[in-house]
């Protein structure tokens, strides 16, 4: 029997970021992962830190803005433990918007990327918004965790959970764990009302003549360049949005459709070399907001899941506020809007 202070279920970016924050505060932490750490949604994402995306629910803004502000410190902490620096790939996003009071964009800046007919057809705004490479982040984050006393147990699914007034006992395929709290960070594998929403994506080689160093995002496609690191020179194109359960099948027709949308936006990608395609699962809720807080009927069971398309962005802030919650402190962001007992149909 192991007796950590906190047991975390799920070793994606949310679970491991929370584990690092709790460890930094002096807690003894065990993380249980049914498969391999960071092998699912965390590595499939495009990496946009889209705190200002107009498609986000307005209630998400305080948490998103907090997380964006915490990101440099978050990456520095990972680097100090892993020895691996995770750089920002881009600093700005060119975003389609319906707002009639647009920021005036420098014409040369737009013309060097988009043909004039595209630029005039779209209403565009320039956002100060960074992106990272989630694969780089995943490698560094796992290394950081392994360089601490955090007990990371991969290939160890939960089998049974039983709460007592003062603790929670978790049965696994190996030794059982008894902790003061269990935090569910299982993303799409969390129980209802969380459900998976599939996204297919692809990567192409950026032509050497294309100076792509910003994210391009419209209503039906985004293009996210990798500007540094092992994948420098590629562009991530996404993504479909499907209610397909846990099916990760890649459909060539969908990939070709995404590629065609990207070419309409950025014709210079027409002859770009295809590199790879993949699919991931976004953990969604009906209102597209995460579940953050204690389950009222099970006070030893805490949820930190349902981050939908913003798991990479929201990892630092989620770790911050859930650690505050577990420590009995006031949280920096009001969590009532993210309450696990808010009415949701699923």
Explain the overall architecture:
It is built from eight helices and 16 strands. The radius of gyration is 20 Å and the shape is globular. It has helices at residues 13-24, 41-44, 61-82, 107-111, 116-121, 134-146, 252-265, 311-326; strands at residues 6-9, 29-32, 90-96, 124-131, 151-153, 158-163, 168-172, 177-179, 181-184, 195-205, 215-217, 222-225, 234-238, 274-284, 291-295, 298-305. Helix content is 27%, strand content 26%. Helix 3 packs across helix 6 (134-146) and helix 3 (61-82) crosses helix 8 (311-326).
Short summary of the structure?
With 346 residues, the chain is α/β, with parallel strands linked by helices. It has eight helices and 16 strands.
């Amino acid at each position: 029997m192991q007796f950590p202070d906190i047991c975390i279920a799920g070793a994606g970016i949310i679970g491991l970021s929370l584990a690092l924050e709790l460890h930094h505060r002096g807690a003894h932490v065990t993380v249980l992962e049914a498969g391999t750490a960071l092998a699912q949604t965390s590595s499939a994402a495009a990496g946009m830190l889209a705190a200002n995306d107009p498609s986000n629910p307005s209630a998400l803004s305080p948490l998103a803005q907090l997380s964006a502000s915490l990101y440099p410190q978050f990456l520095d902490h990972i680097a100090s433990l892993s020895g691996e620096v995770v750089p920002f790939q881009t600093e700005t996003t060119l975003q389609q918007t319906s707002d009639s009071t647009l920021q005036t964009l420098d014409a040369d800046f737009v013309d060097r990327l988009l043909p004039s007919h595209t630029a005039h057809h779209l209403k565009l705004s320039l956002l100060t918004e960074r992106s990272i490479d989630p694969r780089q982040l995943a490698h560094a984050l796992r290394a950081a965790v392994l360089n601490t006393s955090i007990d990371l147990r991969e290939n160890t699914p939960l089998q049974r959970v039983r709460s007592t007034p003062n603790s929670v006992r978790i049965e696994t395929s190996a030794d059982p764990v008894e902790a003061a709290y269990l935090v569910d960070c299982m993303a799409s594998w969390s129980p209802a009302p969380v459900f998976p929403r599939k996204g297919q994506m692809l990567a192409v080689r950026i032509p050497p003549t294309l100076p792509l160093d910003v994210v391009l995002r419209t209503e039906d496609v985004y293009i996210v360049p990798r500007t540094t690191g092992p994948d420098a020179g590629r562009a991530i194109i996404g993504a479909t949005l499907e209610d397909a359960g846990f099916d990760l099948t890649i459909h060539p027709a969908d990939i070709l459709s995404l590629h065609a949308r990207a070419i309409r936006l950025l014709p210079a990608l027409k002859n770009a070399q295809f590199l790879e395609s993949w699919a991931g699962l976004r953990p969604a809720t009906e209102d597209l907001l995460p579940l953050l807080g204690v389950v009222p009927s099970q006070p030893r069971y805490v949820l930190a899941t349902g981050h939908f398309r913003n798991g990479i962005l929201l990892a630092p802030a989620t770790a911050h506020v859930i650690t505050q919650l577990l420590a009995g402190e006031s949280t920096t962001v009001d969590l009532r809007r993210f309450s696990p007992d808010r009415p949701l149909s699923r």
